[in-house]
Amino acid sequence: MNIPMVDLKTQYQNIKDQVDTAILECVSSTWFIGGPNVQSFKENLAKYLDVKHVIPCANGTDALQIAMMALGLQPGDEVILPAFTYVATAEVIALLGLKPVMIDVEMDTFNIKVNEIEAAITPKTKAIVPVHLFGQIADMESIMAIAEKHNLYVIEDNAQAIGADYTFSDGTVKKGGTIGHIGCTSFYPSKNLGCYGDGGAIFTNDEALGKKIQMVANHGQSRRYYHDEIGVNSRLDAVQAVVLNIKLPLLDGYCERRNRAASYYDAAFAKIDELTIPKRANNSTHVFHQYTLQVANGKRDELGDYLKAKGISNMIYYPVPLYKQDAYNHYSPEGFELTNTEQLCDTVLSLPMHSEFSDAQLQYITEAVVSFFEK
After folding, report:
1. Would you say residue 87 has pLDDT above 90?
2. Distance CA 274, CA 268 (A)
3. Domain made up of 251-374: CATH architecture
4. CA-CA distance, 317 to 261, in Å (whole number)?
């Protein structure tokens, strides 16, 4: 078999008639920027997330940058983030002249280590960016308590966990991305809710912030040709909105099928001592954007090569800590290391994960992994 990390082709085939018809209607309407399709998607996503304001934009990286611009963060301000994450989280901080302050993550959930946040706060700290990595939400109740205590903003990087639910200690349930002051997401094609190009969105329940974000994303305009803020040009195009409108009602089903695949993996790998399967946090559902194993005894790369030889795609997210990347190593002291981040970069391996698996594919993947450890 040839098994990709994400099977977008099969997913498309399952909704082909709807998508083809809707895209053709969009093109025929000539509403390419803005218009009823984008407006409809904004309203539908706001309803799904139960959030007051959704501002679509061009991609998830723009979403993070616009969020920080809307909060009025200034050059030299410090922003706390996990070191084990995709570069975009740190990239926008650096682009705006802010300082990324990187801290460690939990070994089991891969999310930001809450008990290290306060030690990283200085008089220059203005915001925390928890990343809901691989599909489950960071410990937002604790993070929000710290933010309130120190008068900090919280920007949720929800690019990998859209659809996940977080349960507070009082039983309140909220969607990822709607808990902090601002939430950001990406609609990159391989995401759980992905479009057919680039796309992103920003969420908030704050009325003033919602207006500010909308302005910043549209050249800083309060109304056409009147520019109250320095802004950017970042828009979700109408064709992508059409695709997202079709896929949004299917998102929960997609996530359920990802969970089914994850459970299949778990059962197959449970007795392999050299593998650590992903933990499910007590306060968050998991939508399994990625299924990420930890492989012990230095066998990670060998296992990856073995699977590739059998036609099974696999990826290392992420092989190098952000603070060791050439573009970012000057933000931390010489010799700076975070124990968990270092270990994860050396041991993680992500297997194919999507919503279109057949039982035969899951059996083929799991048997291949098991055979590696039996040989």
Report:
1. yes
2. 13
3. Alpha-Beta Complex (3.90)
4. 19
User: At 350, which helix (H) or strand (E)?
Assistant: strand 348-351
Domain made up of 8-249: CATH architecture:
3-Layer(aba) Sandwich (3.40)
pLDDT tens readout for residues 193-202: 999 999 999 9
Phi, psi for 310 (deg, rounded to 5): -95, 10
Are the CB atoms for 131 and 85 separated by under 8 Å? yes
Cα 317 from chain centroid (whole Å): 12
Specify the pTM.
0.97
Which residues are paired to 157 by β-bridges? 131, 184
* Tokens linked to 143: 């993070």
User: Within the chain, what is the greatest distance between any pair of CA atoms?
Assistant: 68
Can you list the alpha helix ranges (DSSP code H) found in 174-221?
Answer: 207-217
Q: Where do we find the tokens 């082709």?
A: 9
- The pLDDT tens digits for 231-261 are 999 999 999 999 999 999 999 999 999 999 9
Residue 79 forms beta bridges with which residues?
100, 127
First-residue to last-residue Cα distance in the chain: 20
Q: What share of the chain is helix, strand, coil (3-state, %, to 5)?
A: 45, 20, 40
Average pLDDT in the chain: 97
Cα 177 to Cα 140, 163, 232, 258, 360: the distances in Å are: 10, 9, 22, 20, 35
Domain boundaries, the chain: 8-249, 251-374
Per-position DSSP letters for 219-276, written without gaps between them: TTEEETTEE-S---B---BHHHHHHHHHHGGGHHHHHHHHHHHHHHHHHHHTT-TTEE
